[in-house]
Amino acid sequence: MSLDVVLGLQWGDEGKGKIVDVMAESYPVIARFQGGPNAGHSIHFGKTDFVLHSVPAGVFRKGTTNIIGNGVVLDPVIFKKECEDIESLGIPVKDRLVIAKRAHLIVPTHSLLDAASEKALGKSKIGSTLKGIGPAYSDKIGRNGLRVGDILTGEFMEKFNALKAKHTAILKQYGLDTDISEKEAEWMKAVDYLRGFNIVDGEYLVNDLLRANKRILAEGAQGSMLDVDFGSYPFVTSSSTACAGACTGLGAAPTRIGKVIGIFKAYCTRVGSGPFPTELDDETGEELRERGYEFGATTGRPRRTGWLDLVALRYAIMISGVTELVMMKSDVLDSFDTIKVATGYMVNGVESDHVPFDVNADVKPVYKEFKGWKRNISICRKEEDLPYEFMMYVKFIEEFTGVPIKIFSLGPDRDQTIVREA
Length: 422
Ligand code: IMO
Ligand code: MG
Fold this sequence. Notes:
This protein is an alpha/beta fold. It has 12 helices and 20 strands.
């Protein structure tokens, strides 16, 4: 059996949580493969709203196995709080969750380093969520990291202290001499809690499940435009958010990849710094933020908003080999007379259909305009109920990208989802 991958194709916050929760009905196994608690995957069911940071969004479905893969960085303190919150809803999280030994740990000094680095950058800061993601992945790649499997060995404290000493020395260079004893005690308690989970060789588990013909859904975090290689570097996150990340982050071979499901919002948002060609710094942008409730699920920051960027979307589709699309939050556009999409860029005065290398390039979008549908589509439950103008918008996106849109999401609830017939 193959591994299907769900990816955000923009700058994160595309609605991956909702779609994975909906799709988990037909996947017995859901796996996170990269990122960490910088992610905020919102799920809304009945009267419950829940934001997941580290736990895969299949956890609310009975009978699922949820895997935190080796490519993830895990903060035990945030993880403990999240699991306790899930448990308080009556969900047996320990029975539904498995953690890869090779996943790396975020230690308390990682978030201090994140904050110190951002402060030193001043105006050119990345706008990080300050969860310690960059420093934790730096330690992983620099071969200093601490892994989940280490907590089960006798050398754990020795390794932890060596890493702490390294961090303390760097923090001193930043002029910081913070007392972390309280944070460290809380972290050690959370590590104890983590020991109570099923911690395994994730790569063997994933391949055993594939051999046993189990369908696995890999749940991406962040988005393609935040990818460490293909995003607007350095205004990116520190992991591979594209499809290839699912292979390295789970131990699954590229030949195992089945469907690549790309999620995008009917418009664009970005939180944090960095280029955003279609950004609207005006009343229209404000209307998108208000109607879409565009405030960060992890940090509460207001998100930057703008029109759909098809140049960036097509780029993300190319990098990951996306086979089908899911369009989220389409209902947010209900109120607009005119809707725009970027089909090209003017880069330093020259027309281009490529995402530029230089984050300082002067990029102005070339727009195509569409007539708005001006109807409440959040109540539509069948494709036939959707307005003509909406379907024209959809058709254009499909033609421009060459990929079919298989699902329309028209609101946060599970039933505000139209799955199109093939
Ligand atoms: P989900 O999974 C939106 C952004 C941050 C910042 C940059 C680097 O909910 O879509 P980091 O904390 O990784 O050092 O921040 O990446 N960012 C996200 N933006 N959604 C996310 O995750 C994000 N995770 C990181 O705002 O600009
Ligand atoms: Mg988010």
